[in-house]
Amino acid sequence: MKKNKPKVLIDAFHLYNALTGIKTYSVLLFEALANDDTLGCDYIIYPNWKRAAESGFLKGKLGLFKKLIHHGGFLLYKQFFLPVYALFKGVDAIVSLDFVLPKAKFGKKGFVVIHDVFFWELKENYPNTWRNYFTRMIEQGIGQNTVLLSTSHYTSEKIRRFLGKQNDIEVIYQSPKLLLDGGEDERMLMSLGLTQDQYFFHVGLLDKRKNLLTLVKAFGRYKRERPESAMKLVLAGERGIGKAQDVYDQLLSLIADLGLEDEVVMPGFVSNQVLGALYRNTAAYVFPSYDEGFGIPVLEAFHARVPVIISDRGALKEIAGDAALAFPADDDAALCECMLKLESTDTRGKLIKRGTERMSLFTKEAFGRNFDEVISKHMKSHRL
């Protein structure tokens, strides 16, 4: 008699609050699992992930009342409701995609995605009381019967080093959100004062870790090397979260010092439609970050068929492979050299071809299939 598939509960509560990376990770995974009828496990996703993702009540900047609701509700849900719900549904395992599993699991196997180790490694970037509370909750949720899921081999090594856990760690590459052609690229570029192939592009929070000051310095060098060039630099994204991380004011000061006020465009948060247009029409996507646990924008740029420049830090080289130009993260002169290299049509063509080939490793279908294979493998050994 054929045994029933393991029942696995995936927690989607974080989608009520998540805005960027973890939201993208979760939504793409849920879409992949929903469209695959060959899975080795039966997945129960709770609460309704589409409703949670669309909710705006706890997203963006929150007042004191909403902050209390969020933090209090998060604690009660994770530590009390979720394990009781898992017991009631009779599942065999609980999966958390947002770092935190409940401490009590009633003998059920746990899987938790650790996207990065910034809470441990970059302590100065977070309020101390909040960071201690959150990391303690993460660590208490990792029991002996818990498998840690990582987005890259680079992050796996850091998890082992900073958390000091001996649990199994599995790497599952995620997929990017594919930004479809809205058909109005020219109009959207004109609204920002941009011309196709006449700007370098970066998207992300304007915080220290993104190393945007080095990018602006490199662009200043580029403009001095090519004073006749009409190239601009686009830095899309909102201000960094918290005073310790935000570099918005420093960026404005540096841009003014270098005389680049008319050359650097900072549109703030942009819609997916505008974001897609910016990717498709840029001369190159530049990702100078000091540290990344994965690097979704690299894949988004590959999909848009544009050249990519990355720093040599974090997981960026692991994800990009040989499909991007790399430079030492603090070396603005080296970054400028990469920008100049892209004036070669041959170099651009090779990078675009390699990037397109590289994308085959990171499809949504591969993401869902690899996720299920890892969960199924551990559930099989758990049942023996």
Write a brief caption for the model.
The protein is of the alpha/beta class. It has helices at 21-34, 49-54, 64-89, 118-121, 128-141, 153-163, 185-191, 212-225, 248-257, 272-281, 296-303, 316-320, 332-341, 345-358, 364-383, and strands at residues 7-11, 42-46, 93-96, 109-114, 146-150, 169-171, 199-203, 232-236, 264-268, 284-287, 308-311, 325-327.
CATH class of the largest domain: Alpha Beta
The CATH architecture classification of the largest domain is 3-Layer(aba) Sandwich
Task: Quote the CATH topology of the largest domain.
Answer: Rossmann fold
Number of strands: 12
- Which sheet architecture does the biggest sheet show? 6 strands, parallel
Question: What's the alpha carbon Rg, rounded to whole Å?
Answer: 22 Å
Q: Structural class of the helix and strand makeup?
A: alpha/beta
Key traits:
384 residues, Rossmann fold, 2 domains, six-stranded parallel β-sheet, 15 helices, 14% strand
Description:
- This protein is of the alpha/beta class and 384 residues long.
- The chain is built from 15 helices and 12 strands.
- The protein has helices at residues 21-34, 49-54, 64-89, 118-121, 128-141, 153-163, 185-191, 212-225, 248-257, 272-281, 296-303, 316-320, 332-341, 345-358, 364-383, and strands at residues 7-11, 42-46, 93-96, 109-114, 146-150, 169-171, 199-203, 232-236, 264-268, 284-287, 308-311, 325-327.
- The chain has a 6-stranded parallel beta sheet, with helices on both faces. A 6-stranded parallel beta sheet has the order 9-8-7-10-11-12, sandwiched between helices.
- The model has no long low-confidence stretch (mean pLDDT 92).
